[in-house]
Amino acid sequence: MTTWIRHKGWTWGFRSTVLLYFFALIVLPIFGVYVQSFSAGWSHFAESIVEPIAWKAVLLTIKLGLISTLINVLIGTMIAWVLTKYRFPGRTLLNSLVDLPFALPTAVGGLMILLLLGPGSLIGEAAEKLGFEIVFHQPAIVIAMLFVTFPFVIRAVQPLLEELDPLEEEAAYTLGASKTTTFFKVILPSMLPGIISGGMLAFSRALAEFGAVVLVAGNIPGRTLIASVFIFGEIESDNPAGAAAVSVMLLTLSFLILWIINTVQQRGRRM
């Protein structure tokens, strides 16, 4: 059996199958988007990018994605700390619920936000009495992005906290360091690679969100229209080249983010 597995022909076939699968599922569709974006010529590509509605949608997506990422980094790090450092009733259930956004269709998440914060809801009506609205405005988009990206920072920071040697903290306390000094000098540097990579993954995921956002955003150009919804609208308007041009912008940005994450993780392993 072992001899058969080590046979060069089987190994070559296994590697070829994996590479072919990766090429067909990932590389080919991405290559197709880039080709489609330039199918009408460079001038049409440039016009699609500089179109006011398009670049406003991209800039709005980046702005709201950054806001949701900053919130996720802060809250996600705190949740990871609590789940790792403390033992309390319901901890296992809470730890399981962290991954719920991965399991739920994003449209279901958007529907939950709509029902919870919409005009007919208790919270929505209270917000209207205070003079502001949540659903169909930018706050709802941020909340939708928060929901779908919620697990990334938590799951990136948790393993680092679990691997942290308690002796390092004890040594810091023995040398007279306060809890604040120990956190910033000992614990935070160990958590930082996870915070950065988790935050970047959350940001990259927020840029691409569609299902939850389309239900709770007003989709008003320049105000609540984000890039993914704009791309969908361009497809519906029979303008695939324009949709592909904006998609290329998001793809390129996501590639840069993933490259940075990989660089940070490699440096973290060397330290």
TrEMBL record:
The chain crosses the membrane at residues 20-45, 57-82, 102-122, 134-154, 210-235, 241-261. Its main location: membrane. Keywords: Cell membrane, Membrane, Molybdenum, Sulfate transport, Transmembrane, Transmembrane helix, Transport. InterPro entries: CysT_permease, MetI-like, MetI-like_sf, ModB_ABC, Sulph_transpt2. Residues 58-261 form the ABC transmembrane type-1 domain. It is found in: Cell membrane; Membrane. It is a multi-pass membrane protein. Belongs to the binding-protein-dependent transport system permease family. CysTW subfamily. The complex is composed of two ATP-binding proteins (CysA), two transmembrane proteins (CysT and CysW) and a solute-binding protein (CysP). Part of the binding-protein-dependent transport system for molybdenum; probably responsible for the translocation of the substrate across the membrane. This is Molybdenum transport system permease. It comes from Paenibacillus lactis. The lineage of its organism: Bacteria, Bacillati, Bacillota, Bacilli, Bacillales.
